[in-house]
Amino acid sequence: MVNTLVLATAGLKPDQLADTEHIRYSRVDYLELQRLIDADVLNYTAYDRTKLGRLYRYLETQIRSDLYLALRSVLIKSSYKTIFAMSERVGIPLAGIYKAFHGDNRFVAMFQCWSQRQEQTITRLKLLPSIDTILVHCNSMKQHLVKLGAPAERVHVIPYSRDHRFFSPLSTKVEQQSNFIMSLGETRSRDYGTLFQAVDGLPVELLVAASGAWDAREKNMKIPGAVPQNTTLVKHIPLVELRELYARTQFVVVPVHETVYSAGATVVLEAMSMGRAVIATRSPGLLDYIIDGESGILVEPGDIKSWREAIQYLLSHPKEAHRMGQNGRQRVEQELNLDVYVERLANILEPSAIKPSDASVPSQKLPLPCERRCDE
Q: Of 324, 327, 289, which Cα lies nearest the Cα of 310?
């Protein structure tokens, strides 16, 4: 019996596994996890191989709930000691199934994002007791779940990460460009309206990728407010191009709506990994990642004046922006990197069965061959 079934709400591009040197793609967290524990992976990879699979994927994108992935896991869960749902998209429907038909497996669910609809579903159906262990990416999310009734000892904070080897200042020879800044992220969690008003008329070039990276699944692409003349909007950005843009930028701006979950953490970590300072909204979910004045600047939500002043400050103090970027990179190397992340996951899932990892050797275990199928 394999110890763990990992339900990854992500998919692999056709050429991704062949990129063993990670030239075009960063390392994948659930594949790195397989180096440490005895696990199989069920993901989205094969959804697009059949017409029915493409229909399932489209419907799940619309309802933001991976019902099919949850049902597929139920059919094979008896072969595993632990079921690990890597996001609320599959974790919430699976919690409903476990409440109705509780099995002998240990059920571990990770909550990465949060919405009013998801909270209503969990509280009205009283699903929290069905989850044995809950993983979150920030302390504010843990506090929120405890207020909703989750036992504190069941909720573990594991800060998110990105591949610090792929996103590295040494990974590209692109030169930094003065007065060029960038923002990235899906519109549902971003406060681009405030940012646009803050940069309007400033001597700066702002690039905004409001659709996110290539693996984002944003439904609503509409950006509120007028786009200033010094701002350029682009669509999904391939990872290699995104890395080069981080290298070009003087610093990165991350305007988010105030949330209990770590909205914006992906961009913050990528920017820090690339040695770039970050200006971000002082949202509870980002306080675990940015040290104000050390690796970036935190601005109160919706404060246009403070946003404008922070941007002007780093534009006119490039040495300070460089210092913050170096501090951010150092923190990533020490504690907010992919290797530490998967080790923390492994210690939760199988604390007594961690296998030595060798990042130079590609994992040979592949996702399970089923009609399987990336979130932001």
A: 324
